[in-house]
Amino acid sequence: MNCAPAIDNRLSIEKSDPGRRGLWCKNPLRAKASIPAALRRKSALRLPELSEFDVVRHYTRLSRLNFSVDTHFYPLGSCTMKYNPRFNEEAAALEGFAALHPLAHDSSAQGTLELIHDLSARLVELCGLDAITLQPAAGAHSEFTGLLLAKAYFEAKGENRTEIVCPDSAHGTNPATASMMGFNTVNLASKPDGRLDVEELKKHIGPKTAVLMLTIPNTLGIFESNIEAIAKAVHDAGALFYMDGANLNALIGMVKPGDFGVDLMHLNFHKTFSTPHGGGGPGAGAIVCSKQLAPFLPVPLVKKSGSGYVSDFGDGRSIGKVKAFFGNTGVLVRAYAYMLAHTPEEFADIARCAIINANYVRSRLLDIYPSYSKEYCMHECVLTPGADMTGKGLRTLDVAKGLLDRGFHAPTIYFPTIVHEAIMIEPTETESKATLDEFVAAMRDVHDSGMADPQALKDAPHTMPVKRLDEVQAARQPNLHW
Amino acid sequence: MYTPHTKKDKEEMLKTIGAASFEELVKQVPAKFLWPKINLPAESLDEAQAAARMAGLAAKNCRPLSFLGAGAYERYTPAAVKAITSRTEFLTAYTPYQPEASQGTLQAIYEFQSTVSALYAMDCANASMYDGASSFAEAVRATVRVTGRKKIVYSAGVNPQYMDTLKTYFAHSPEYTYVKVPMNNGVMDQAALPALLEGAACLAVQTPNFLGLIEDMNGVADLVKKAGALLVAAADPVSLGILAAPGEYGADFAVGEGQSLGLPLAYGGPYLGLFSCKKEHVRQMPGRITGLTKDKDGKRGFVLTLQAREQHIRRDKAASNICSNEALCALAATVYSALYGPEGLKELAEANAGAAAYTAERLSSIKGCSLKFKGPFFNEFVLSVPGKAAALREKALARGVDIGLPLAPLFPELGETLLVCATETKTEADILKLEAAIKEAI
Hints:
The complex is a heterodimer. By secondary structure, chain A is an alpha/beta fold. In chain A, 35% of the residues lie in helices and 11% in strands. Chain A is globular, with a radius of gyration of 25 Å. In chain A, helix 9 (257-260) links the parallel strand 5 (240-244) and strand 6 (264-268). Chain A has 16 helices and 12 strands. Chain A has helices at 52-63, 86-93, 95-98, 110-127, 139-156, 173-180, 198-204, 227-236, 257-260, 329-340, 344-365, 387-391, 396-405, 433-452, 454-458, 471-476; strands at 131-133, 163-167, 184-188, 209-215, 240-244, 264-268, 285-289, 301-305, 308-312, 381-383, 412-413, 423-425. Chain A has 2 domains: 87-340, Aspartate Aminotransferase, domain 2 (3-Layer(aba) Sandwich), CATH 3.40.640; 348-472, Alpha-Beta Complex (Aspartate Aminotransferase, domain 1), CATH 3.90.1150.10. In chain A, helix 5 (139-156) crosses helix 6. Chain B folds into 2 domains: 65-76 and 341-441, Aspartate Aminotransferase, domain 1, CATH 3.90.1150; 79-335, Aspartate Aminotransferase, domain 2 (3-Layer(aba) Sandwich), CATH 3.40.640. Chain B is built from 14 helices and 17 strands. Chain B has a 7-stranded mixed beta sheet, sandwiched between helices. In chain B, strands 13-14-17-16 form a 4-stranded antiparallel beta sheet, with helices on one face. A two-stranded parallel ribbon of chain B has the order 1-15. In chain B, helix 4 runs antiparallel to helix 12, helix 7 packs across helix 8 (160-169) and helix 13 packs across helix 14. Classes of the chains: A alpha/beta, B alpha/beta. The interface between A and B is large, with 203 and 206 residues.
């Protein structure tokens, strides 16, 4: 690749010098190693040779090129970029949790097993369902687990159901998971108000339908008010009702999904339960389900036995493993720490503040950024640039880049795909009114200055470490490593 | 509780919104479902109380001197790794959808991809999978897509958890068949390969294998190629400091468990799926990939690329449903590799091999104990023990030593055996303590 020296953005390998060292491993047992020559590595290992300080400065510098929740308001719709409490990090770093081997004997793991057991019970209660697995590593991985459960459930009943129904506003992971599992996806067009069309649903649901996957509230930030009719239609067809729980932040403590007739749902700990996103992961997921699906959950589960806790490998009906070992336990420790900090009423305040914040931003921007939906939103709202902006050739992408120059991370853009030029804003409950006011001012300033000088906005960002990047070249001639 | 609004804030905001009350905002939710009784503790803990509760739970986990491996390895995590990954600019960012505001994460991922490509001597790598098992399963899925074949041949030494995960991934498709290459002295019986590989999508091998033995991969890729199949190799990344790399012996896909690169054991996760492949399969890679490009002034920059494979674009036609990955763990592994560098990784690998060799030497001298296999191994080995291995383990645990994993539940054909692992964290004194614990337990 091109290693042209550029003082400001060199790769670690471009700072490397032969013979320089960071860390050593001086364990004298090295001398006992005797690996035959035929099995040894022959090619050079092309890793950087740097001092420890070089490495620390290099990555510290990189960290400063990022926007993050701690440094910037990050209203990325459907991603729930809320504050990640520092205490959670400290709890997860406790040696007792961090150093525990995944194959440790149950008697060595009583603390973690108790934590998993209690976290499970509390989550089941919050969701109004009966059973749970914490094994999935992320949201999409939970969807996969959920569909496996559905499959096992229908197989046990001797039914062959091949279709997954989801609305066109669904997260891309829903149809991707369905197809990975060999299901056919049936897409339902949303009604003009953004809701699922129950009559349309009834037409497309039947003996072939395994599962309806529905995000609640949906990706437009709207609650499916006809939820009872939806659940009834699904159950009348003998199918299962799956709730994509990515947006649970809007509902937690305020409703229990089990009460609507949801049979199974997933949780994203990195959204609702405040664990950090880490630049893309790790997350952790869960599937919470009703009694009828419980026998098929992945193993091991944890059960109480006498005064202690043991791994439970089920009665042989389990779908098996979706991940090596137990799950992303380190993330679960953080979620449990968060759980301890909330009573039911305090959970409800999360939903309440998330909904107030989204409506506050929406109401203060409506006059220049029209909303797809004409009613109040739940935890997020979908806006678009107005006709005055599009008349000048200004698009959602320009608004996003203009916000970066004003010190705000952009909302999710061009999603959901059913809204032309979507700007999807999720402020989350942890942002103060003062921050939202600043954001509103920035959005208005983007509009006003864009109208005054459209080209300047089309050229934004101007103040970031790089300007708009050539994505076409990146895809045509992929340069993926040094 | 982490919500900032005072009662006055809420009132003012509702007023701006034009709603008389909060209830008006949620009219779309049928009233009968609102505010159910939730049976959770009525008191939450303040931070000091929560800290005491968490410390109490952590203390209930015993921490014996442990010789467990079997896919997760005890490592020292350098202070500088913790310092970088706890920088909240990395910790609290999300997937870099806005590249201009995410160059730090993007460049770090590019360097991670480079690190994995270098370790495995492969052409390209992605920005990570959930863990070694999911990387393995996705690599096998890719070979099925490329070859259009549905027969999966795997060596008996592949981690059983990887195979379980793979079979779960294919649970919907009864037409897939799994053919195990039998074991000969703890390694794959290569003489059996030509017949077994006929019509196969892939040969999936792990080396060092689950029993710790190093597979001799010389010539294997030729047999695989001759059958029109693809070679998937799983390898521990630290072992590649001294052992032949998948790219050197002709693997098409190479995967591994990145936990080995300095991540805490954390009872199973978050870990880090390493995934790499040959150039011609780049568009078969699942998940996020970062590429180097230029901005409009010609300045170097990084973006997520080849997104046409992914779920948010292709929906039901995507290569995989993966969305969240393990980016922060990938950063930790990258920093770890940069701190140790090529010489340090070689030292680490040698220390693993040396510690395990010394452990094997000591334990095989115990009366009634012997090495089950004679072949070269990396950092773990199978020890035959007199009596029930599980009972010995429990006895030794009572003395503060976890002597290894009893293999009978996974490999009943091996008899009463333990899989014993020693990494660079073990000293001569630790190993002598292990020896004493086993002797006492017997």
